[in-house]
Amino acid sequence: MNSLKNLNIKPIENDELRKLLQHNIDQKTKPVGSLGYLEELAIQIGLIQETTKPKLKSPVMLTVASDHGITVEGVSPVPHEITWQQVNNFLNGGGGIGLFCKQFGFDLYVVDAGVDHDFQAHPRLIDKKVRKATRNFLKEPAMTQDECDQAIRNGRDVVALFAEKGSNVVGFGEMGIGNSSPATALLSVFTGLSVEECTGPGCGLDKQGVQNKASVLRQAIEKHGIFDKPEEKLATYGGLEIATMVGGMLEAAQRRMLIVVDGFITTSAFLTAYEICPMVRDYAVFSHCSKEHSHIKMLEYLNGRPLLNLELRLGEGTGSALAYPIIQGSVAMLNDMTSFGEAKVYNVADQKGKGQSE
Amino acid sequence: MNSLKNLNIKPIENDELRKLLQHNIDQKTKPVGSLGYLEELAIQIGLIQETTKPKLKSPVMLTVASDHGITVEGVSPVPHEITWQQVNNFLNGGGGIGLFCKQFGFDLYVVDAGVDHDFQAHPRLIDKKVRKATRNFLKEPAMTQDECDQAIRNGRDVVALFAEKGSNVVGFGEMGIGNSSPATALLSVFTGLSVEECTGPGCGLDKQGVQNKASVLRQAIEKHGIFDKPEEKLATYGGLEIATMVGGMLEAAQRRMLIVVDGFITTSAFLTAYEICPMVRDYAVFSHCSKEHSHIKMLEYLNGRPLLNLELRLGEGTGSALAYPIIQGSVAMLNDMTSFGEAKVYNVADQKGKGQSE
Q: Which of A249, A307, B43, B108 can pair with B101 through a Cys bridge, CB separation 3.0 to 4.6 Å?
């Protein structure tokens, strides 16, 4: 694929820097290791930014929207018009993502990757529409390889723009009625888990609806096959918002940005990016574990530990936004927490490798 | 106990208000239920404040500090001088709790409930010292009933003061070398779980240290017995910071404040408050699940769901502070998230009781 040429994501590992970061954290006035996952997160961010003093700059949230041809098969309980209505809602600062971006300091942009609607121009709307909705992948591939390639390219371009403006944190989220179907199909074809294991209620299907959705997905996969190349899986079963996020995530890793991954659909984009280039994994933080039951299977496959487990299932990037204060907390700990020397607290660890408190 | 006279905590349940809160949340532009535990939290806070428009006012963090006679039995790997050194560190804005209170908007006060040190006066230090450290409860009860009563009274007084100043959120945390021993003993005598099941490494005991600690606690409980009354268990096995927190939590519930509970030791105080008056449960949010392995047993006994699970084991109130943005998010959702009507988004739930999105 043209869009993947010049992709060159570097691993973040750096033994010397890791030791320095660990040393600095172990000098903080607390028992060694007592801030748990916050410490690992601080080290990861230091390694990404190649410094002992990382800074989170101009965090941007990209909520990527698209429609899905597969919705004609009854895989979603709600009409696809909700997609464009919600995009307008977000652009006006509404919805969960509008609210939480304001609250937690993300600059929100909505990327139109393929919404079946003509939007008026808006300073927060980025027009990267490849076509109005994917095709119905029960009948034919959701995208041609060229369309998929264009969507990946678009995602890379959008993220490159924000990187050049100085952002080093990018949250991803999505809006697209029906998009738990492509996400579920991708989970199945990437991991080998059965469609039945992977299929859940999405935004609110009843039991019969879930059975129908699984049946549609199974028939589609039997028809097209599972393919070898991640790009083929993506073009056949994916969505335009998913492909655009894939490109955005790869570009973000290439530019050493921290990637904050949202729920089930966003993680399916990350899974695809990971299959294209496993190095992207080093740059990701998984914000939460969704109530969609197979999100945890995706996270396990990616060896990803979610920061939150609040049974969210809204998407949009809301989990990414809600988890951001914890990420800020980890960086603040590394940069600003007092050390034993500064605080005149006796450092037990210097004597015997242990710490104090709870 | 004199300190428990005039205690009259009311349950928060109110069917009519709950329905109104649920209705308002279900009008937000999202699938019904899709913000998961955030929605339950918003309803709880609305019920506590008896309004559909709750506000979080002047959140205060009380980090209660004390020393413990039981430390002479080698139950902690670090010297008890760390307690007073850390108190000074916190008062200067240092340590994990100093940092996170600044970051997440808590007004931090350190309550000296029984530290073995003479502090200089400080505007952030509240002197409620009952005595310098508890007694060694392997030999005799940690506190007399009078001392324990005084500590509970002190906690009530401190919280009453902040309530009168307008705070309606109070986070609790602690600092006290050795205090995982009283917390473990309380867990055992309240729940009937064996001392061995309950005992963990605290701030960093090795395997042999954990065995010694369990042995000390088992001997103490065999010597004194398990008692019927929670106040007797508390006086015999507790700590001055724990008893002070018990009083503070009960007073907070009585004044309809939201109580943000920290880790293992703070939860042992909450457990004691709960055994004294189960109604206190309605007012609590459990901020996190500690890495101390038996914290989860405490939370299960209390039917408490932790907001975070980051393997923290620092105490001080750090988990309470880190979880606060999520609490703020839940209240913002209730008050400020757009409704279907405002956003001109089609409300599918009006038609068939379902929602849209992921």
A: B108
Kindly report the length of chain A. Answer: 358
User: Is residue A45 in some structural domain?
Assistant: no
Q: How far apart are CA A88 and CA B196, in angstroms?
A: 58
pLDDT at residue number B344: 86
| Cβ A59 vs Cβ A107: under 8 Å | yes
Q: Where residue A292 sits, what CATH number does that domain have?
A: 3.40.50.10210
**B332 interfacial to chain A (CB closer than 8 Å):** yes
Q: Model confidence at A351, in pLDDT bands (50, 70, 90)?
A: low
| Catalytic site residue from B81, B316, B342, B358 | B316
Of B32, B95, B315, the CB nearest to A338: B95
Instruction: Assign B108 to helix, strand or coil.
Output: strand
- Closest CA in chain A for residue B25: A96
Give the β-pairing of B125-127 and A125-127: unpaired
pTM of the entire predicted model: 0.96
**What ipTM does the predicted assembly reach?**
0.96
Distance CA B52, CA B24 (A): 8
Residue with tokens 């205690």: B7
* Residue A263 domain boundaries: 60-332
Active site residue B275: no
Query: Is residue A73 in a domain?
Result: yes
Q: Is B355 in Cβ contact with A78 (below 8 Å)?
A: yes
Q: Which residue has the tokens 């027009």?
A: A127
Q: What are residue A171's phi and psi, to 5 degrees?
A: -90, 145
- Give the count of Cβ contacts less than 8 A between chain A and B: 248
- Indicate the helix (H) or strand (E) that contains B60: strand B60-66
CA B339 to chain centre: 34
Least Cα separation, residue B98 to chain A (angstroms): 8
Query: Does B13 reach chain A within 8 Å, measured CB to CB?
Result: no
Q: Does A182 touch chain B (CB under 8 A)?
A: no
How many domains does one find in chain A?
A: 1
Q: Is residue A352 part of a domain?
A: no
The SS3 of residue B246 is helix
Q: What 3-state DSSP class applies to A284?
A: strand
A239 touches chain B (CB under 8 A): no
Alpha helices in chain A (DSSP H): 15-26, 36-49, 81-91, 95-104, 145-164, 180-191, 195-198, 207-224, 230-237, 240-254, 264-276, 295-301, 318-336, 340-343, 348-352
pLDDT of residue A114: 98
